[in-house]
């Protein structure tokens, strides 16, 4: 049984934390971002594998090491890179609001909103138009609402990616073929990994 800290999803969770710390450094340069993400992912996986091999519990460290190398680089990394690149671009464009999301833009929008309310109040004194007044009042805050929406969606998509990796981990070990032969380095014995059953776990 693979210790929790060395499961594919847990390794990638820690990797996400590391990559998110540098993601914004590569805004506007997706190619450089992809290259740096790949370098750090390789480094992170190899460090996790070294730690994992030092743990006494693992049954078959080479199988898990192979899984980590393959799935982190071929499943996790392409999806994370695409999500991170899209998020960088959205943040760079202030989630579609451009300069209006900057402090000066918000001040201008607030002034325009006040002028619009005063004008509407003088020209149209109709209580039923309060939704229009409300929409004018929230105008300066629309960029903040868009940022909140984008960030929530980004977080959910990252969580969905990690959930997929948890399923990959759960389904990775029940069926092993000849390509999963493990060489025991201690005595150079090569043996086929036994399938673990529920009866074995009960024992």
Could you characterize what this model shows?
The protein is an all-alpha fold and 203 residues long. It has a domain at 4-96 and 154-202. The protein is built from 7 helices and 2 strands; from the N terminus they run ααααααββα. It has helices spanning 8-20, 30-53, 61-92, 103-123, 130-138, 142-170, 198-202; strands spanning 182-184, 189-191. A two-stranded antiparallel ribbon has the order 1-2. A hairpin with a 4-residue loop joins strand 1 and strand 2 (189-191). Helix 1 runs antiparallel to helix 6 (142-170). The longest helix has 32 residues, at 61-92. It starts with 7 loop residues before the first helix and ends with a helix.
The Cα radius of gyration reads 26 Å
Kindly state the percentage of residues in helix: 55-70%
Mean pLDDT level = 78
SS class: mainly alpha
Strand content: under 5%
Q: Could you tell me the number of beta strands?
A: 2
Main pleated sheet: 2 strands, antiparallel
The low-pLDDT segments are 175-203
Helix-strand topology string: HHHHHHEEH
Quaternary organisation: single chain
Q: Helix count?
A: 7
Distance between the termini: 14 Å
Short description:
This protein is mainly α and 203 residues long. It is 66% helix and 3% strand.
């Amino acid at each position: 049984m693979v210790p929790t800290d060395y499961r594919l999803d847990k390794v990638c969770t820690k990797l996400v934390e590391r990559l998110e710390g540098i993601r914004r450094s590569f805004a506007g340069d997706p190619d450089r971002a992809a290259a740096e993400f790949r370098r750090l992912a390789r480094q992170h996986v190899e460090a996790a594998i070294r730690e994992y091999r030092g743990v006494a519990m693992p049954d078959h460290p080479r199988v898990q090491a192979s899984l980590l190398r393959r799935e982190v680089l071929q499943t996790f990394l392409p999806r994370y890179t695409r999500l991170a690149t899209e998020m960088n671009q959205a943040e760079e464009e202030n989630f579609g609001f451009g300069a209006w999301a900057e402090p000066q833009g918000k001040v201008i929008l607030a002034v325009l909103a006040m002028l619009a309310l005063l004008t509407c109040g003088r020209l149209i004194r109709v209580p039923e138009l309060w939704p229009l007044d409300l929409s004018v009042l929230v105008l300066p805050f629309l960029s903040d609402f868009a940022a909140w929406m984008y960030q929530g969606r980004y977080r959910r998509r990252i969580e969905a990616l990690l959930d997929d990796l948890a399923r990959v981990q759960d389904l990775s070990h029940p069926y092993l073929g000849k390509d999963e032969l493990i060489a025991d380095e201690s005595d150079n014995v090569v043996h086929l990994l036994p399938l673990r059953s529920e009866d074995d776990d009960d024992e």
